[in-house]
Inverse folding.
C-alpha cells in the first residue's frame, strides 16, 4: 500500500524552526520537491535563513543531481501543503496539545499512503497519535541537531502504528540519505538522547560540585572520547581495546569497575544474560574481523577526523 | 626547580602494554629521546609492535622535525631507565600494590626535578604516592585510548603533590602536543571517563532491558552526537542550539526535562548557582562570538569530519 520508497519525489515539512527548516534543507539537497508548511507566512524569512545557512554545508557535503532550493514551496495552508505529499516530516512545537490537534488534521488531510514522521524528542507517538483518525502511518522520526548534517534518524511507532509504516520509514530514510535506527521499544529519549542525557546530567553534577567547569567538560569531550566515537561506537571501542578477548575480557576484567563511583549513574547488574548480549552483539558487529584490523581501521579514521578538524581550523585561523 | 618544559629532550615511559607503548610512540613522534622501561626484555617485541602500529598513524598526523623510532631505547633496568629522565610517564598495571611499590622505587631513583605522570584511569594519586619519598612531583596524567591519537591528558595531583608539579605537567604536555586538562579536584574517573561511563552505564541498562542492541548503541553514537561532539562539546552544543538566549534559554526551557526519565541518571537540582555556573561558563567559552558565527563554525567543522570519514571509507572500500 505504501509507495516504493525510491519513487518518492514530493516531501512536505512542517515547522519553520531550526529542526523544520533543517529538514526542508536536507530533503531539497537530496533532490526532492519540498513543500514547507509554516504556521504563518510571516515565518517565511526565518525559514529561508535556516535553509540558506544549511545549504552552504549541504553543498559542501555534495548535492544530489537536480537538487535545488528552487524546488521549495512555502505555504501556510495545511491542506495544500499535504494534499500531494508522499512523506511528511513534522517539526511543530514540542507541546502535546499542539501535536495532537495537528495530527487530528493531518489524519484527515494527508493521503492515506503517506507516512508521517515526527521530529519530537520528548513526546511519545502513542500520545501524539491519540486524536488521529489514521494513526497507523504515524511514526517518530527523530533527528539529531543539526538535522541537515547528522545522519541519525531514530524511528519507532506508537501503539496504533503499523509495522509496515515503520519499515517503510526506515527504507525511505535510507534512500533519502539518512542513517535510520529502528528502535526496539517506544522509550522516553529514544536511544541517542538517552546516551547524551546521561553524559549531560553527569556533566551537570560535576559543574554543580565544582569538579569541572563547562569549559572543562567540553575540552574533555572534544579531545577525549568524541573523535573516536565519531568512527567507532562505545561498544566496539571497548571490544577492540581489549584485544583478543574483546568485550568478554572487558566485562570480566572491568566488570567490578561498574560498581565504582566513576559516575553517579548506577550500572545494571552484570548478569550472564547481559554479558552474553554485549559479547554476542559485539561479535556480530565485528563480523569476523580481527581486532588488529579493526584497531587499524579505527586509527586510520581517527587520523582522518583529527586532520580534517585541524585543516579546517587552520584555514579559518581559529583554534575553535 | 623544574626545568623549562620546552627544554625537555628525554622522556622515560614505563609499561609495555597498549597505553605504555602508545605513550612511547607519541613522545618519539614529537621528537623526544625515549627510554622505555619494560618489566622484562621478553616484552620488547610486543612493545615494538604497538609502537610500529602507532607510527603509521603518527606519520599521517605529521611527525616533529627529527622524530625517529631510532631514538628509542628499551631497558628492563629501572635505575638506568630513569636516571637521566626529564619526564616519566608511568603506565604500569592497574593494581595499587604494584603502583605503590613502583613509586617507592621511582621516588628514590628518578631525579628530584623530574615530574612523574601516571596513566592510571582508576586509582587516585593520593593512594599511589603513599610509599613514595618524593611525592611532591607525582601527578595523574591520564590519556584516552589510543593515547597516541586522542589529545586529552587529564592532570591532577594527590594530597602530597605540589602545585608547581601540576602546573609543570600541564605546560609540558602542551609543548609535547597534547591537550592538558587540569582538574579542579581528585575525583574517581576524572572528567572524561566519568562522562563516558555515564553514557556507558545507560547503554548497559538499555541492552539489559532489550531497548537497544550493542549495534544500535554504536550506530546512534556514530551518527548522532559524536560527529558534533568532536568539534563542539555538549555545553556549547546546547548553548549554540538555543540561539540568542544560549545556555540560559536551554536551562529555563529544558530545565523541566531534567526531571524526565530520559536516562536512569537523576539530574542534580537546577539551583540558581548551577544555572549561573553553566551560563557564565558558556559565555566565557563563547568569548563574545555570536551564536550564528558559532553555528556556522560548528557546521563547517562537522562537514569536514563527515567528509573525512566518508573519504577514508571510500578508499578502504568499507562502510565501517
Amino acid at each position: 500500500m505504501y509507495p516504493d520508497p525510491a519513487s518518492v519525489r514530493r516531501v512536505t515539512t512542517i515547522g519553520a524552526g531550526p529542526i523544520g527548516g533543517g529538514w526542508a534543507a536536507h530533503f531539497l539537497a537530496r533532490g526532492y520537491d519540498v513543500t514547507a508548511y509554516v504556521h504563518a507566512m510571516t515565518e517565511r524569512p526565518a525559514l529561508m535563513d535556516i535553509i540558506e545557512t544549511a545549504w552552504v554545508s549541504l553543498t559542501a557535503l555534495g548535492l544530489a543531481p537536480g537538487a535545488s532550493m528552487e524546488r521549495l514551496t512555502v505555504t501556510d495552508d495545511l491542506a495544500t501543503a499535504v494534499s500531494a505529499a508522499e512523506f511528511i516530516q513534522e517539526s511543530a512545537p514540542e507541546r502535546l496539545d499542539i501535536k495532537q490537534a495537528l495530527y487530528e488534521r493531518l489524519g484527515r488531510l494527508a493521503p492515506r499512503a503517506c507516512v508521517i514522521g515526527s521530529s519530537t524528542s520528548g513526546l511519545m507517538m502513542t500520545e501524539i497519535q491519540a486524536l488521529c483518525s489514521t494513526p497507523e502511518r504515524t511514526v517518530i522520526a527523530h533527528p539529531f541537531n543539526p538535522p541537515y548534517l547528522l545522519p541519525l534518524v531514530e524511528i519507532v511507532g506508537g501503539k496504533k502504528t503499523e509495522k509496515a509504516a515503520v519499515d517503510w520509514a526506515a527504507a525511505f530514510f535510507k534512500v533519502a540519505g539518512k542513517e535510520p535506527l529502528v528502535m526496539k521499544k517506544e522509550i522516553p529519549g529514544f536511544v541517542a538522547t538517552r546516551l547524551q542525557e546521561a553524559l549531560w546530567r553527569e556533566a551537570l553534577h560535576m559543574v554543580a560540585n565544582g569538579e569541572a567547569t563547562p569549559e572543562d567538560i567540553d575540552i574533555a569531550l572534544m579531545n577525549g572520547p568524541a573523535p573516536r566515537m565519531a568512527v567507532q561506537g562505545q561498544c566496539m571501542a571497548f571490544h577492540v581495546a581489549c584485544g583478543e578477548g574483546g568485550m568478554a575480557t572487558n566485562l570480566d576484567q572491568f566488570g567490578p569497575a561498574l560498581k565504582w563511583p566513576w559516575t553517579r549513574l548506577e550500572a545494571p547488574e552484570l548478569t550472564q544474560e547481559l554479558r552474553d548480549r554485549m559479547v554476542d552483539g559485539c561479535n556480530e558487529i565485528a563480523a569476523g574481523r580481527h581486532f588488529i584490523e579493526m584497531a587499524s581501521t579505527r586509527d586510520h579514521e581517527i587520523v582522518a577526523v583529527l586532520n580534517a578538524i585541524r585543516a579546517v581550523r587552520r584555514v579559518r585561523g581559529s583554534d575553535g
